[in-house]
Amino acid sequence: MGIFSFFKKDKDKEKVESHEEVHSIQINAENCQGCGRCVSVCPNNAYELIEGKSSLKENFTCRDCKVCLAACSNDAITFVN
Ligand code: SF4
Ligand code: SF4
Question: How far is it, in rounded angstroms, from Cα 24 to Cα 46?
Answer without folding.
Answer: 13
